[in-house]
Amino acid sequence: MDADVVIAGAGPTGLMLACELRLAGVDVAVVERRADRTGEARAGGMHSRTLEVLDQRGVLDRFLALGELQSVGHFSGIWLDFDESESRHPLPLMITQSTIERLLEEWAGELGVRVRRSAEVTGLHQDESGVTVELGGDEPATLRARWLVGCDGGRSTVRKLAGIDFPGTPATMTALIGDVELPDLDEEYIWARRRPDGEFSVIGFEPGWYRVITSAYDRVADRDEPATFEQLRDSLTRLAGTDYGMRNPRWISRFGDAARQAARYRVGRALLAGDAAHIHFPAGGQGLNVGVQDAVNLGWKLASVVLGRAPERLLDTYHDERHPVAERVLHNTRAQSALTRPGPQTDALRDVFGSLIVFDDVNRHLCAMLTALDIRYPIDGDHALVGRRVPDADLKTSGGVGRIHELLRDARPVLLDLRGDAELAEAVRDWSDRVDLVEARSEDEHWPVPPGSEVAAPAALLIRPDGHVAWGADLDARPDIPALRQALTTWFGPPRRP
């Protein structure tokens, strides 16, 4: 084998997945058709849950140092206020995709990930023991791996070669986007200014540089037609009445509101993640975040299978958990796309919708949905936190004061004992090579659960490497040890001894 896992695509999803696999000790090779990073900004930020998973791995500070936290977000251009009590990282971080990719690639290099550029997947052949991946590009080659993951974008070659359907709805509009200088701009920030035949926004990302976005409805460009600086300038002039002296484009691209999702996230030894598995209108800045969270869900599961710790059926839970998440994103971005359409009917709908957002429950619901803080995976268990991401509560341990998310630095599962129960230590002993037992005390009596709820601090939790709870016990009840052992077996493989 040339690698345990070959990942096609060195974007944020592929790089994050590579890092997750390397943390578990899996040999990874990333192949990327581009010769170098594009430098295109594209996505412009990360939401709370993505910031949390980077914090879980101990690398968040690298991103915070190069981005800017924003106090508000939006749903289809209608402002939202984030609840700062529901996460340690409640605010979105404005940071360009090019910067995100650079930081992730640096981290991947530190972990020993091999990235091969100018190498495009052109063929794949599966058998019972692995996948043969054919590469074109500057140096055509063949790689042999046990698993292949397509993180190669909306036009994924891996998805097509694996024969996975990509159903959904076609585009009904075209938007142009570019980073340019605007020396004649007389406003610092223009957000979703609506016009009879479209809308435009101008967002300052860096001193002197602005992201310009223009939208035209009921016009769908050929997706292979290149986007040009002249098209962006003409579009802005048509909508704004001026081009604000637009000059020096860094990059120009286009997007639409097509929404499609892979029918399956796995066929045999080939899997999909990120845009290869789902595309949608880029409303609310969710796309990159969903991809990174795909990677964090898949990484530890694929590593467990590669290392022989868990059976292959564990990989079926990747589709079961992440497919509904992306399905919901497609649903809410379709709604946001509809709310951006010009016309008096949409104007009235936006007015009504805006009047509802001022209610706290509505605001919290939409914020939790956009940030992914409210995701609850379909995991068996009675505890209120089972399936949810674990809150980053303050803890007191024998080593001092810490936080729950700090316990996940090594991407290993944790059995958190908050009561000092000898039964738990005995129950997890047969998984001690795979699961860390941590004894601590909660510093808080209640933990926040988005949107707008809370639970009493538990007696114990089994936390997966992705930060989601697989089993829990309340302080006022004895822990269900058979259920704990079942959860350990389901997620982390059979015990070492009968």
UniProtKB/TrEMBL annotation:
FAD-binding domain: residues covered: 2-332
Coiled-coil residues: none
Keyword Nucleotide-binding: no
Presence of the UniProt keyword Flavoprotein in the record: yes
Keywords: FAD, Flavoprotein
Cofactor: FAD
MF-aspect GO terms: FAD binding; oxidoreductase activity, acting on paired donors, with incorporation or reduction of molecular oxygen, NAD(P)H as one donor, and incorporation of one atom of oxygen
PANTHER family given in the database record: BINDING MONOOXYGENASE, PUTATIVE (JCVI)-RELATED (PTHR43004:SF19), TRK SYSTEM POTASSIUM UPTAKE PROTEIN (PTHR43004)
Protein name as it appears in the record: FAD-binding domain-containing protein
Annotated source species: Embleya scabrispora
